[in-house]
Design goal:
Layout (H helix, E strand, L loop, with lengths): L5 H5 L5 E16 L2 E7 L7 E6 L16 E10 L7 E12 L15 H5 L9 H23 L3 E2 L5 E2 L11 E2 L25 E3 L4 H11 L1 E9 L12 E10 L3 H22 L1 H10 L4 H10 L3 E4 H9 L17 H12 L3 E7 L15 E9 L3 E8 L4 H10 L8 H8 L5 E7 H9 L20
Parallel strand pairs: 3-5, 6-10, 12-13
Antiparallel strand pairs: 1-2, 1-4, 2-3, 4-5, 7-9, 8-9, 10-11, 11-16, 13-14, 14-15, 15-16
Helix pairs in contact: 3-5, 3-6, 5-7
Amino acid sequence: MKRTRVVEALHAKNPLEQILIKGWVRTRRDARGFSFLEINDGSCLKNVQIIVDESVPAFAALKDVNTGAAVAVEGQLVKSPGKGQKWEVHATDLNLLGPADPHTYPLQKKRHSDEFLRTIAHLRPRTNKYGALYRIRSESAFAFHRYFRDRGFYYLHTPIITGSDCEGAGELFRVTTLPVDSTGEKQEALTTETDFFGQEASLAVSGQLEAELAACALSDVYTFGPTFRAENSNTPRHVAEFWMIEPEMAFADLQDNMDLGEDLIKNVTTDVMDNCREDLELFARFVDKNLMQTLDAITGQTYERLSYTEAVDILTRAKIQFEFPVEYGFDLQTEHERYLCEETFKKPVIVYDYPKEIKPFYMRLNEDDKTVAAMDLLVPRVGELIGGSQREERYDVLNGRIIENGINADDYWWYLDIRRFGTVPHAGFGLGFERFLMMITGISNIRDVIPFPRTPKHLEF
């Protein structure tokens, strides 16, 4: 018999004579002559109630069916007389697929702290909160893909191992096959030339540079994949491994970039709200009481746009004491970004034209020779969600910026080639997928929106 998912059973139009439900037991409640089981298979937030009476052949085996056990139940889907549920299943047969030790199973019918659940990340998807989160994560990923496909963008797979440092910050995970000595250090007698690639290699911090190459042939492309940064940070906004979405458009400038960022966030947020309403409502009840109002503001308003200079002016005149002082020439901190969104404009904000000293070499130099055509899209509660720019398409200017930043131009010969052979204005940005999930769920710690977080001194599972 084909398995019926719990979500299909709960949304059935009519009673069903015989169905097969497979899932994990959330609770078991015994009465004289029968038992109530709450079963969930991860397909939706709600459980389906199973009634097993003593006429079922396997009734005696219920003593081994505890919370966490996996079972297969055959039975009839009938109308439920209980409140809060339309259907229930009257079992005709039950099989215990996988028992769970009631003395050591760590998930019980109570609320567990996020800190505790991080220690059992292999089991936390079975909770209501994380089951809902992973369904939202899945739907969000497909929503991004749908958005770009419907607008003619081509999906590009960029390298995970690279010889280039996109950001120039040096926070890279090195990749090597060179042996190490007893102290864990590379043997000095072995040089980079003897390594696997014959040169220094690392995990990619971005797919942007390769996306630029493809955009200059296909016009509009995007990447969606894992990225890695060896940043020794334990803040609620940083992990070492995360997912990035990076569109790149040829024949586009900063204005086009800002337009794309705003339209993307509005459309994908609306898509997820339409398709994950029940799961989002859980976060609105238990995580962020103002979540739905925040999401309505993100989808229903034109975003504010102002220059970095204007943003600094607003922040320096603010009548609050920031932890990090505001000064022209320094990057905005999360508290500054949130102040602009939550206090000043009460909606998402796009800040553009940053000082060139605080931005990477590839961003297009403005005519004032002081700022670059950069843009950051800021959202309430999270701060920066998108960071991007118009790219520097002029060969001489780009080459000068590379040298100015102390980077070896020879390592970027292929990147400079695009400026020699048919160069065009082009623009793009990076969107942190986990930060989007923080925005749409109200979760405040990035470790709780990625299934198995990688952070300094933590590599479990």
